[in-house]
Amino acid sequence: MTTPVDIAREVIALEIAGLNALQKSLDGGFSAVVSLLDAADGRIIVSGMGKSGHVARKIASTFASTGAPATFVHPGEASHGDLGMVSSKDVILALSKSGETAELRDLLAYAARFSIPVAAITGAEESTLAKAATAALILPQSKEACGETRAPTTSTTMMMAAGDALAIALLRKRGFTADDFQGFHPGGNLGAALRRVTDLMHGPEKLPLVKLSSPLPEAVKTITTGGFGCAGIVDNDGCLIGIITDGDLRRQFETGLAAKTAADVMTKSPRTAASDALAGDVLALMSREKITALFVVENMRPIGLVHVHDCLSIGVL
Q1: Which pTM does this prediction carry?
Q2: Helix, strand, coil fractions of the chain, as percent rounded to 5
Q3: pLDDT grade, residue 260 (50/70/90)?
Q4: Does a structural domain hold residue 50?
């Protein structure tokens, strides 16, 4: 007896086969679509009907969040006034498996009238949409996962993947960076992980620092009053050369701490962070090295300190 899990595996296998076919089929048509989208002085107008329309909305959102201004225009609404949202500086990206979606015809006619370039994602190379397009990405013929109804399943999965591929190719072509991406994603875990260390570090006035020659009791006092569980050790030039943590003190407890200096106990060449490091990368480093605090340095001089709690408190995961 076929179980729901068996069916799920069959569906996923068919969609994976479609994605593999798509990967192998990519050619100059994909590059032409990327070039067409990149050349637009205005926005990318993404459109599609039915299931293709839902995919088109997601693709438009992905473009917009990765530095390519984009919006979704419903092809049916376009025929009733929303064509006014499309300017001669825009480029249209139209999605249709058959390439014969009736609701797209007014949008394509409008594009031809005002010389607005059209890119297409379709499964039919000889379709009306493909022939009207300036550049087209042709999806390979693949079996839909819903064999009973041939409802769009594998084809929409391929469309979604193709849209992601276009967005990332365009992002890299334009040199879009993590800084730019964070600007569009200030909220949530993703935005938190893309914040810079300088946004959350404790500044110079709060740094727990002692000199290399300082008596160990002075270092202990600095650790206690600093509240970070550590003290940075600096040389006469103010460069960070070591760190003493609570753990270091515990390990040295039975060896006569009072007579020692900071230099006797410190860990040399401690892990540090650059001021432009991403919060997500810093938290990953602290987790990997099993440490709770990092000094932020410029030219070896400490300018700040970031604690694991600072990352967690803003939602970095």
Answers
A1: 0.64
A2: 50, 20, 30
A3: confident
A4: yes
